[in-house]
Structure formats: C-alpha cells, structure tokens
Specification:
This protein has six helices and three strands, in the order βααβααααβ. By secondary structure, the protein is mainly α.
C-alpha cells in the first residue's frame, strides 16, 4: 500500500511556510522535520517521517501556486539570507545565483524542491496536480 502525503500548494506562501506545510503533510499537525534542503532530503530518504520500508507518494496540489510563491523573488530572498553563511570558496557562485534570481533567471526554490523530491524518491513519487 502506498502512503500519500498531500502538499496543499495554496498554503505555500514562501519557503518558511513550505516547511510548515510539508512538515504537517508528512508528520501530522504541528509536524516538523527541519527547515533546510538537507533536512527535507533526509526526510524523503525514510525514517524521518516518511516510511523507510514502504512506498509513498507526494501529491502536490495547486503546485502552480507554489511555483509562483517559490519563484525568483523568494529565491533571491532566500539566497540573500544564506549568503552570510556561505563558505568563502562558494561565495562567488552564491553571488552569481543571487544576481540571476534578481534578474528573474535561473532555477527557483520551487525547481530546487522538485529536484530534491525526484532525486531522493522513486520514479513517479511526485504527483504535480
């Protein structure tokens, strides 16, 4: 039997809200697993809310609303916050990514989250509705 976790895209207004929504989808009301891409990837690998011995799927409803909320503007906001913590060897790449986001180019947070889901789960696990 496949466990289905539903992300209500209409509730995603930015990255911080995404963490709340996905935490509740996976772990129930008040659910929490972390607030970073690494924590999200760990959660999807099993044992942190998702089953490590059963099939599961993520149904992302109203994903187009999430894509807008997690677009270039939110990506730039996120990159500005993380720029202060970037290792000096990665600073130029981070600054370039920020410049691209500010110009409305390059991958968005939505794109990155979709990539994390598809890289960490079995094919067909993500259902964009």
């Amino acid at each position: 039997m496949t466990v289905i976790y539903v992300i209500d895209g209409s509730e995603v207004t930015g990255l911080e809200r995404f963490w709340d929504v996905v935490g509740e989808a996976v772990n129930g009301p008040g659910g929490y697993f972390g607030r970073s891409l690494d924590s999200f990837a760990d959660c999807l690998s099993g044992g942190m809310g998702t089953p490590d011995d059963a099939a599961f799927a993520i149904e992302w409803r109203d994903h187009a609303l999430s894509a807008r909320a997690l677009g270039h503007e939110e990506t730039a906001r996120h990159l500005r916050r993380t720029l202060t913590r970037v290792h000096p060897t990665g600073r130029a790449a981070a600054e370039h990514a920020l410049a691209e986001a500010l110009a409305g180019r390059g991958p968005t947070l939505f794109d990155t989250l979709v990539d994390v889901i598809t890289e960490r789960t079995a094919p067909g696990t993500l259902r964009l509705r």
